Amino acid sequence: MSAAAPQSYAPHTVLGSGPAGTGLARELVRRGHPVRLVDRKADGPGIEGVERFAADVSTADGARAAAGDAAVVYHCVNVDYHLQTEVMPRVQAAVLAAVETTGARLVVLDTLYPYGETGGAVMTEDSPWQATSRKGRMRAELDERYLAAHRAGRARVALGRSADFVGPGVLNSSLGAAVFPGALTGGEVLAFGDIDLPHSYTDIRDVAAGLATLGERPEGDGRVWHLPTAPAVSTREIHTVIEKRVGRPLNVTVLAEPRPAGPFDERFMAEYAEMFYQHTEPQIMESAAFERSYGVAPKPLADTVDATVTWYEEWLGSR
């Protein structure tokens, strides 16, 4: 990790103020960078060292305004699941055009969707992109456009792929608000598919640190990286770690097929159905290339669970 990187006086601009973007903004401040955090309203709570900025980065004007004089732009924008195939290509077009104009480097937070169904094979940066889902094909097409822009010299781009998020502040994940509130209160805990299969989850703090490292280290440009991710274990094993931390057995309901339940409403699950294969075959992501190249290691699972439970205790207590 480049913790001693020299301070840049051009801001590092983070697009998207969800858990990844907010965590990244804090990590960049910790590393000594001036930070601009962009979303549509700029009305979130203040973060020391962070300038909040309002812009719609799905538009050319909004993306150019957001990029401004930034040295590095981080694309952490996400949208409601049912809008992804419509909106994400617009965001990409606007953001790419902006950095091509300003000369800022671009670091993109990416997913495992382009790989599609793997039959349980370990996913590395060399795995084939064979998605058949709408959202997987869309993500693969966007990624190829990013890399093509880099190859053509129009932009300097690095892609950081993450497995399913887990960690402090993560709500909308299969290991988020469907799990930890119930674990703490004795309520229902939801799980998807075959919970005895290995499944990778990436600590949101490792997402932030990994993206910040890519932003500081331009030698990583022009390729896909897997962000630091702990070795895959089964979701059942993670439940056991959570049980030890909270001191009670979990009341687990397993959804063997996509259907509305808990925080996952009918519209979301209808859209998620094509991605449900992620829970019926092993999802094993390897991040050894990043770990070797940048001298980092992912946070251990027990640490991730402990920090996540602590955050949910505070979150539930504040509601």
Automatic annotation (TrEMBL):
It comes from the Bacteria. Residues 16-220 form the NAD-dependent epimerase/dehydratase domain. InterPro entries: Epimerase_deHydtase, NAD(P)-bd_dom_sf, NAD(P)-dependent_oxidoreduct. This is SDR family oxidoreductase.
